[in-house]
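User: Fold this, then the next.

Assistant: Folding the first:
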Amino acid sequence: MKTVDPNPIIKLKNNYMEYLPVFGLIFIIVGIISWRWVVGIDYMKKNHPDYKGDDWLNWNNEDNGNDKDQIT
C-alpha cells in the first residue's frame, strides 16, 4: 500500500505566504505617504488658510501677469 507524502500538500498552502512581506511593505509605504500627505494638508490649512491654489491652476484669469514665469 502506498502512502501519500504530506510535504507537497503543505507546500501548496505555504506558497501564498511568500507574498505577505511584499504586501506588508506596500502597505507600510502607502501608509507613510498618506500620513505625510495629511500632515502637509494640515500644515497648509494652519499656516496658509487663504491659499486656494488658484495661482497654480490659473483657471480664473487668462491674462495673468505671471504667465511669463509659467512653464506651459
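Now the next one, as you asked:
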Amino acid sequence: MALDLEQLSSISREVATSIDDRLSVVSVAGTEGGGNRVELLVTVEGCHREPCRHILNVSRAEVHQFEKEVRSQLQAALMDHRAG
C-alpha cells in the first residue's frame, strides 16, 4: 500500500536532516493525476543565491524504497548545488 502524504513528509524531512541540516523539505504533494509518485519541494537554507529550491519526483513505494530514492535524489541535488 502507498504511503500517505503525512508519512511521506515525515520520512523525507528525517532523511533531509540526516544528510545536511540546511536542507528543508517545504512541501510534499501528489503528482498531477494521482498515481504512485509525489513531488518534494526542498530548499537549501543559507544559500548564497537565495532562494535555492529543488523539486524532486519520487515513488510512493514502500518505506525503504522511498527513503532510498529521497536520499539519493537529495544527495544529488546537494552535490549539484555545491558545484553550481
